[in-house]
Write a structure and sequence with these properties.
single chain, 5-stranded mixed beta sheet, two-stranded antiparallel sheet, alpha/beta, 7 strands
Length: about 190
């Protein structure tokens, strides 16, 4: 593919990877005029040397950061959910075809975009997700313990340390004693 002036590029689709970005640029007519693989360090420099254009990316944490940086350079960066980009993919999946599908999808007038989040919003979202996972794990463990206690065939025995002594006790007895103590306090 011959190298062309960056002034012809109207739309860019970026497939974000860990260390490299696959970039496909389309002109006003929709023809591919740019198809390159850029390293993470090259992205900002290359976009700084381009005239403002429409840039599409699939939404992820790294895309939010890049979107903020590209908007600061004057580009119209838009994020899309991956499930809405998939129908525009042609043929077998590879990074350049994904970037081309992103460039096609970002131009659609009915496309649903994701708002670019600030760093604080992403931090808060991460905290909520970690908390949600901890609650799910806690609930799962308590359900598992309850199932063990309902099992009539075997007696669950644990070693309980009290007053410096390790005693072997039935889990049912320990739970019954704690439930009784909780109801007395209430």
């Amino acid at each position: 593919m011959p190298k062309t002036a960056s002034t012809e590029i109207a739309v860019i689709g970026i497939d974000i990877g860990k260390n490299s970005f696959h970039v496909v640029g389309l002109n006003e007519r929709g023809a591919i005029v740019l198809r390159q693989k850029w390293s993470r360090g090259q992205v900002e420099t290359r976009f700084a040397n381009m005239p403002p254009c429409l840039v599409g990316m699939e939404a992820c944490v790294g895309a939010h950061h890049l979107s903020r940086r590209l908007r600061a350079l004057g580009h119209d960066a838009r994020l899309m959910p991956a499930k809405y980009v998939r129908p525009y993919s042609k043929g077998q999946k590879n990074d350049f075809r994904d970037a081309e599908a992103i460039a096609e999808a970002v131009q659609r007038p009915t496309m649903k975009f994701v708002a670019t989040k600030t760093a604080d919003q992403l931090d808060l979202q991460a905290l909520h997700r970690v908390r949600e996972r901890l609650v799910r794990q806690r609930t799962g463990i308590s359900n598992q313990i309850r199932a063990f206690l309902l099992e009539p065939i075997q007696e669950v025995v644990i070693h309980e340390q009290r007053d410096g002594l390790v005693k072997r006790r039935s889990m049912r007895r320990i739970m019954a004693r704690r439930m009784k103590a909780a109801t007395v306090r209430a």
